[in-house]
Amino acid sequence: MVVKIRLQSQFFQAPERFAPAPPRAALLLPVTAQQDARRKRKIVLRWIGMGLIAAAVMALIYWYSTRQARAQAAYETGVQLLKIGHYDQAILNFDHTVGLNANMAQAYLMRGEAYTLESRPALAVRDFTAAIRLAPRETAALLERAQVHLNQYDFLDAAEDAGRALQISSALPRAFTIRGMALRGSGDLQAALRDLTRAIELQPNLNHYFERAVTYQKLGQHRLAIADLDRAIEFEPQASPPYFARALSRRAAGDSAGAKEDRETGSRLDGY
Q: Is the pLDDT of residue 8 over 90?
């Protein structure tokens, strides 16, 4: 009993041991007007910075979302400029197009055509090659590159590109014509004759008959050449080259009067 009373008395004698400590008084420092203004400026600058970042993000999103549309618009403008002969301006538009969309094969193709018309074959080949890389199953760039090679007397590469186009599509008269001319240039006249005959079968026109006639002339088969040149003239009576070419074959065949008549007709058509 005595112990119990002692414990209770010890408990009640020191209540402060179990009471929470009183809060410490906060130390208040005076704030000057300059410090308050600096704090407000920081807040304002922080909000301005966040606003600028948000605006930049929105501008970037808008720029990317309209990129394709702007590339297409630049491409279409370039095509129109190319049609009316403003090659330099067309090239600038195609430059802008590929800057916005580096994977647009058609833009490289059209810029290559513009470079071809400007007699800049190296740049044309570069762009046609880029178009072929981006669209390997399309034949247009292969044929354009083949034509540039042919114009530069690079018969091997011209025949190779035309052959690649024919592997993709076997009914391309232009491919047969280019390859036929390249084969003729490299001296394979019989193979050239086969390709040019196939071109005529697919698409009879002045150019195809004319090129086969030239091949017949190189083979010394002037009567066949004359027959083809007759057909070429039927397609376009106002074109002078077939008359001059027929004059050569007529003279070789012994028809001097006919040769003279063709030369005179060709000169008259050329304005001489």
A: no
